[in-house]
């Protein structure tokens, strides 16, 4: 889904350079890189000041918190119950797609600034068989 989002809106991303070409028989796939600042601007324009509380349905969005070294889940249900669990959607989307090899770790604060995390994309934790041990059903 993220790939579809990037491909559909690729004209909104400032292209920096051609990263690599991967040869596949019989065709070629060309991979491009996008500026992190361009992604931030696009997410800012898309979500403006919307927060987890504003989502229409319950969602769980994973990332990996480098400070606590555990999976961190952005949760609509938690945001409704506790103000310190409410984050801006533009920050949630950016951190959950923050490739540690490209963007590095991302600092994110809750709307009330009581919760602070230093995180990278959720795949780091979700690819770990024990990474989802602390998840909960909503």
Automatic annotation (TrEMBL):
Keyword check for Chaperone, yes or no: no
UniProt keyword annotation of Mitochondrion present? no
**Which Gene Ontology molecular-function terms are recorded?**
hydrolase activity
InterPro entries from the entry?
Acyl_Trfase/lysoPLipase, PNPLA_dom
Q: Which UniProt keywords apply?
A: Hydrolase, Lipid degradation, Lipid metabolism
Q: Which PROSITE patterns match?
A: PNPLA (PS51635)
Segments forming domain PNPLA: 1-134
A GO biological process of this protein is: lipid catabolic process
Q: Which family does it belong to?
A: Belongs to the patatin family.
Q: What is this protein called?
A: PNPLA domain-containing protein
The organism of origin for this protein: Hibiscus syriacus
The organism's taxonomic lineage, starting at the top = Eukaryota, Viridiplantae, Streptophyta, Embryophyta, Tracheophyta
């Amino acid at each position: 889904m993220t790939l579809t989002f990037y491909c559909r809106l690729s004209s909104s991303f400032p292209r920096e350079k051609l990263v690599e070409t991967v040869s596949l028989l019989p065709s070629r796939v060309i991979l491009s890189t996008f500026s992190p600042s361009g992604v931030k601007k696009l997410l800012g324009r898309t979500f403006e000041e919307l927060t987890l509380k504003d989502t229409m349905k319950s969602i769980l969005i994973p990332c990996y918190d480098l400070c606590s070294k555990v999976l961190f889940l952005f949760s609509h249900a938690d945001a409704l119950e506790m103000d310190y669990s409410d984050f801006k959607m533009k920050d949630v989307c950016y951190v959950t797609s923050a490739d540690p090899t490209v963007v590095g770790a991302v600092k994110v604060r809750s709307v009330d600034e009581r919760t602070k995390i230093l995180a990278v994309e959720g795949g780091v934790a979700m690819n770990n068989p024990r990474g989802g041990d602390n998840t909960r059903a909503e």
